[in-house]
């Protein structure tokens, strides 16, 4: 049975790895599965090269790292190809509207370009009391130019962040909301929202029911490393400091994250259909640079269970209670 090949993702980065040689012939081998799990804990993200570009393989790869979890919102589109086998596989598919490409597409202007599928730095499920452990992403349809996905490691962010600014975040919780409208982003805004997405009306029905969620801006792993874990997108305030001073601190932190993300602190992935990427959602931030509105783009994501136990809803509810209200 063939083994796998592991290499650093980039010589300049302290996080990430790339793996080749994984397929149906060895993905069920427990020694290889444990090697991948250990590598993931150490490096925070893995880029798998040369994978079979199928939903079945994406699900099999995801289950190496844990059971799948459904997405916590009902308005998010699911992938129809996987059916019941992969509960919670979400389909992020942008198809240009030739007759009016700006209608209902959630476009922004960034650095003089009009972009679709632009996503600021964030971590998944920040609006939930529980964070998923990881996500696995693939891109069956990639834009010919742009559309890269960026990743930053919170451990490395903590090390690189200006100490005075970082120290002001210690022991603080950030409040997040389900409202994903880019026109409502408060911190680190370096783009101009142009149009809302067509699904906004359905989203806002859930926003009205979801309580706000709290997550620490900095937390410490069992292995001892501190993680700076603040996502500017969907953040609305500092807990116990919902005022101008708290907003000014978060805005300064968000702009510093943007600055580091544009430099050598981030990894920006150019997609191939045979790539699959997994990242530790408790540790990493990610973003999408967006692409020209004339290009089609599709990504499919699986969500892996496993909470870090530090988040909570401000009214003390559990996600099951929220789901019952949404339904």
TrEMBL record:
Domain TauD/TfdA-like per the UniProt entry, residue ranges: 7-302
Keyword field contains Transmembrane: no
Family that this chain belongs to: Belongs to the TfdA dioxygenase family.
Protein name: TauD/TfdA family dioxygenase
Domain of life of the native organism: Bacteria
Keywords: Dioxygenase, Iron, Metal-binding, Oxidoreductase
Provenance organism: Novosphingobium album
Iron recorded as keyword: yes
Sample GO molecular function, one term: dioxygenase activity
Entries under PANTHER family matching the protein: (3R)-3-[(CARBOXYMETHYL)AMINO]FATTY ACID OXYGENASE_DECARBOXYLASE, DIOXYGENASE RV0097-RELATED
Alphabetized Gene3D superfamilies for the sequence: Clavaminate synthase-like
């Amino acid at each position: 049975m063939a083994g796998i090949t592991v290499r650093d993702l980039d010589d300049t980065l302290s996080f990430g790895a790339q793996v080749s040689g994984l397929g149906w012939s060895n993905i069920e081998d427990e020694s290889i599965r444990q090697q991948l799990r250990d590598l993931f804990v150490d490096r925070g993200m893995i880029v798998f090269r040369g994978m079979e570009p199928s939903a079945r393989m994406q699900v099999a790869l995801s289950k190496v790292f844990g059971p799948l979890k459904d997405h916590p919102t009902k308005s998010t589109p699911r992938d129809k190809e996987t059916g019941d086998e992969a509960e919670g596989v979400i389909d992020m598919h942008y198809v240009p509207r030739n007759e009016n490409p700006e209608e209902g597409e959630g476009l922004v202007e960034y650095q003089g370009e009009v972009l679709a599928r632009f996503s600021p730095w964030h971590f998944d499920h920040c609006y939930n009391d529980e964070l998923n452990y990881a996500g696995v992403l693939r891109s069956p349809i990639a834009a010919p130019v742009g559309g890269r996905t960026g990743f930053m490691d919170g451990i490395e962010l903590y090390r690189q962040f200006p100490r005075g600014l970082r120290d002001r975040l210690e022991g603080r919780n950030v409040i997040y909301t389900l409202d994903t409208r880019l026109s409502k982003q408060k911190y680190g805004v370096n783009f101009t929202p142009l149009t809302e997405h067509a699904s906004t009306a359905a989203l806002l029905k859930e926003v009205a029911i979801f309580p706000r969620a709290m997550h620490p801006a900095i937390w410490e792993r069992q292995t001892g490393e501190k993680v700076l874990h603040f996502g500017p997108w969907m953040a609305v305030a500092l807990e116990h400091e919902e005022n101008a001073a708290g907003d000014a601190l978060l805005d300064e932190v968000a702009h510093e994250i943007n600055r580091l993300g544009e430099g050598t602190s981030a990894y920006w992935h150019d997609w191939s259909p045979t790539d699959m990427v997994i990242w530790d959602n408790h540790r990493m931030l990610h973003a999408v640079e967006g692409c020209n509105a004339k290009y089609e783009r599709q990504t499919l994501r699986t969500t892996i269970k496993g909470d870090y136990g530090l988040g909570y809803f401000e009214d003390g509810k559990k996600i099951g209670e929220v789901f019952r209200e949404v339904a």
